[in-house]
Here is the input.
Amino acid sequence: MPLSLSAKQALIKVETVLREKNWKDFDAGELKLVLIPYYLYNYHFYTRAEKEGEVFVQSSKDGVLALNGTSLKVEEKTVKIITENIGKGEQIAPAIEHEVKKSPLTKSTQEHILKVKTAEFFKLSIDQVVVSNVKTVMFPMYESFITVQGETHEIIVDGVSGNIYGIEEVGEREKGFLEITQETLQDLKDPRAWVEYTKGLAIETRKFLAEKESIPIQNASEVNVAPSASKLSFLSSKWIFVLIIVLALFLIYLAFIA
Here is the structure.
């Protein structure tokens, strides 16, 4: 499979995703290029039914699957990436340092294991599955890790498509009030942003009021219940800051006409 992404480009992709999740302080390990064996193959299976004591084929299905040769997991999503890129060049090892991962599959066990994994994937018995046209493909990927707020996550960057796996486990960081203030002031330098913020403020206000009306009246024993997360998120959003600005401008206007 052709390597279409350099280590630097892969790292930029990882950093971009983390910044989109509002993370600025994180540690990223060195990206290591590995070649992972994948088995691309055709599968055929059928389902049976019984009527009046006779067993017959009720339905059948054919398709293509890919098995990760190291994890031994069927990866349906990888099929499209492989089939779209398998003919774009010879399978030549990249001219940079890399590690070739080995698979426990051998020529003698390959067909049986593919049948077992396909049967497991579709929840069938092994005798209902047939596999054919098996091709071995070396898939380039970058392995690394990222440490965010003391937690380390293993990540893999697809060296062909650029997809990142494992980074979805990193949650989005809630912005602080100062960050929201700076971003809002920067946005409001554009007159068009005032229109968008005004619309957003109206929508958020309606949501907040509707939520408030839906809260049941508390009795004396419930007075000390902590506020809900939705209220806190409303008060920490950009919309409340815009509301403060609008009120301040309104007060200035009143002061001038008084």
Observations:
- The beta strands are 27-28, 32-51, 54-68, 99-100, 129-148, 151-158, 164-165.
- The chain has two domains: 7-169, 177-257.
